[in-house]
Amino acid sequence: MEKFSFKDVLILIAGLFITSIFAWSILRATGHIPSEIGKLFLKGAFGDKRNISNTLNAATPLILTALATVVAFRVGMFNIGVNGSMYVGALYAAWAGYRFTGLGHYAHVSLCLAISVTVGALWMLLPAVLRVYAGVSEIITTIMLNFVAVLFVSYMANGPFRADPIAPSTPRILETAELKQYFPNSQFHSGFFIAVFVSILFYFLLNKTTFGYELRSGGDGLVGNYPSRYSSYLGIPSNRSAIIGMLMSGGLGGLAGGVEVLGSVRNFYQELQFVQGFDGILIAIIGKLEPIGGMIAALGYGALKNGGLYVDYKTDVSREIVVILMSILIFFVSAQKIVRGLEKYEIVRRLESIFSRKIK
Amino acid sequence: MEWLEIFDISLFRSVLRNMTPIALIGFGAAMCSSAGVLNIGLEGKMLNAAFVGVATSFYTGSALIGFICGVSAGILTSILFGLLSFKLGADEVLAGLAINIFALAGTRYLLETLFQRRGFFSDPSIQGIDPIHFKFLEGSKFELIFSGYTPSVYFIFFLAVILYFVYYHTRLGTSIRATGENPEAAEDAGINTIRIKWFTVIFAGFLAGIAGTFLSLENMTLFTEGMSAGKGFIGLVASAFGNSTPLGTFGASAFFGLGDAIGIRLQGVYELDSRLVLMIPYALTVGILVLIGIRQRYKIRRVPIQNN
Known about the structure:
The complex is a heterodimer. By secondary structure, chain A is mainly α. Chain A has 2 domains: 1-32 and 332-360, no CATH class; 59-316, ABC transporter involved in vitamin B12 uptake, BtuC (Orthogonal Bundle). Helix content of chain A is 72%, strand content 0%. Chain A contains 16 helices and no strands. The relative contact order of chain A is 0.20. Chain B is mainly alpha-helical. Helices cover 73% and strands 1% of the residues of chain B. Chain B is globular and about 55 Å long. The model of chain B has no long low-confidence stretch (mean pLDDT 81). The chains are: A mainly alpha, B mainly alpha. The interface between A and B is large, with 48 and 49 residues.
């Protein structure tokens, strides 16, 4: 894949501009005043300390799910099932959170997160094996497993793991398993730092190590599909990297769920809904399938999401507008021919060369 | 043998109703994958059609207008898909995913903005499409089996036959298969492969539109958030299980319909946990995917490995 280039930034800015025009006209058509809504939106996302910490809290699982998508797509596997991994990871983190007693804080948190990572990774084992050894499209398997995961966790919260006779939920996790929340009226918790740390770790792993190179050679690129001929010319077993990449991706999805439960929800109940796995796909694409790019995009999306919630709460504009605008943005970002068409223009080429020289 | 009692005429009727949307999507997906297009976005097309069908039927009070607008919504969404993937060079999978997410959020947004509802929308002024009763079957013992379904149920039988004919015995069918199997050779033979792909995508959108209006105007007359519930993907699996042929797809979707119907009936007989019953179609799909995998593995073993 090409590095983050000036063209991509240009496309992103153009896309953002066009999506804001869309937003403006949608709001106008439904009889709202766009500038008022925009002000509310900014206030909700960055207004004061509490709003900013809420934005960071919203971004925490998104950073991890985006990273999960990045890892899977970079090895050439279209993993749509991060959301499923997130659900099972969250469920088992909650289980480990109340099941194991008498541990220290760090030991208990590590144990819970390790369990959620393992469960999330195992959830992805079947699609990976089916794809690599039998050629079944991992896209459909993972999508189906998403549906299975939702019903499975809801069954578990209702049946085996149910503690509360009235509400279908697990017991609250023990205090030793809680990730620390820093502000009194915000759910912002130390899981954010775990997410950032893991992102940076994966940046080095993917881009700076031999192991990462072997992983990437399986399918490097936005549309690179496993199995790639490139990898077989290099003599790298792309089967192995595809399976490892899928398991890593599932593990990161599970970690996202675990962090969310230990940090902000603190028990698992039947109505708990996650969409971050799906948001993560959009974010990863906007972040150009780079761990750091994904992290920055996740922070931006967290702000959008939090601002959208605030607008939804204050006015009758639905929060879904954020997702609509994001998918329109994806339409632009994924349209490769627009990117290539830009090269026609002299000024773009010149700016591009200046920009890339500065980077080096 | 208590469990044998569930196999009766009402199970048969339930199978037909449950398999209809899957078969409609499956036929579209079969045509697309025969032409080498992986159409992930069918789910979103179906959802858009279901919503537009209900909304227009609510405003105009006419089931026919609702149906036409719903199907047009399905076609328009597939034109968007075609533009993105064939004109603007977006990856098919990404375009399809974006369309699915767009449809899910968009219908939810419109549901809240137009009708101020969350979750679902039902209203007595939504006109559904009525079932067809055959006059000449009245009173005979075939009435229970063949009469009283909504039009789409009959349409899938018709479609299976027509598509079988088109697929194997016309120039168009051959062109579609050639486009999927070997695009370069098809181009050399004078087939405009892009046009063929456009045709299959729009045709699949048309069928997805019918499937969507089947869900919201025929099977029930209401709209719920995400009411397509993965049927678009199950249809894709059905077409893969049926080797992308019309009759194979039909058989595979009948199998999925049977699984659904038995699950619903078992829930009544044994008081199973509803979540486990709801899981049946998806678990069945995963099971079928494993079977497809085993079949492909077997094929790979027999045929010498080619570098594609």
